[in-house]
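[Discussion] Sanity-checking designs against the backbone

I'm trying to build intuition for which residues belong where. Below is a structure token string of 178 positions. I'd appreciate it if someone posts a full sequence so I can compare it with mine line by line.
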């Protein structure tokens, strides 16, 4: 397992933010402004009515001509199969991807290694959206603590490799890197 990544992926952007911070909208705007073909990768799974509504709203918010791929687990494969110089892949979101990995009882560091490798090999732009939830108090439950810890470690590893990192606060992008 490679815990250190020193090479920057020139086409990789990480957008972090809290709930309703504008992170998805910002990622979508970057994708639109690229002028390239957009492949939108959704990681959410609809387990309840509220999540169905959220997913539906996200679908309505993006242009009809964007290709959409719903993939809860295999982000590395999606990047490897779909990345080329004439497109941008927008992944929304890594937070749910990590939850899906935990639910599937997969090896998180190994999965993040696969993701970082796919990003390194990508031929086109990759924009990743994720919730920054690690700034609050330490959760009380064991699974919640594991989730927050894994998310924080994943963000660090991706941010180290990404060309740019943006933190969204109240709809405003704050450049952290790049």
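Best answer:
Here's mine. Compare freely.
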């Amino acid at each position: 397992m490679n815990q250190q990544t020193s090479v920057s992926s020139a086409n990789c952007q990480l957008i972090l933010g809290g709930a309703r911070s504008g992170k998805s909208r910002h990622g979508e705007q970057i994708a639109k402004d690229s002028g390239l073909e957009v492949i939108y990768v959704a990681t959410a799974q609809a387990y309840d009515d509220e999540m169905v509504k959220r997913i539906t709203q996200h679908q309505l918010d993006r242009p009809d001509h964007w290709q959409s791929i719903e993939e809860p687990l295999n982000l590395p494969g999606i990047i490897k199969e779909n990345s080329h110089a004439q497109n941008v892949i927008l992944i929304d979101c890594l937070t749910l991807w990590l939850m899906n990995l935990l639910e599937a009882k997969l090896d998180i560091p190994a999965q993040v290694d696969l993701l970082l490798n796919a990003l390194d090999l990508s031929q086109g732009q990759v924009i990743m959206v994720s919730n920054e939830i690690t700034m609050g108090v330490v959760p009380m439950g064991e699974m919640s603590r594991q989730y927050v810890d894994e998310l924080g470690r994943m963000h660090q590893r991706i941010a180290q490799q990404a060309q740019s990192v943006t933190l969204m606060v109240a709809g405003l992008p704050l450049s952290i890197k790049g």
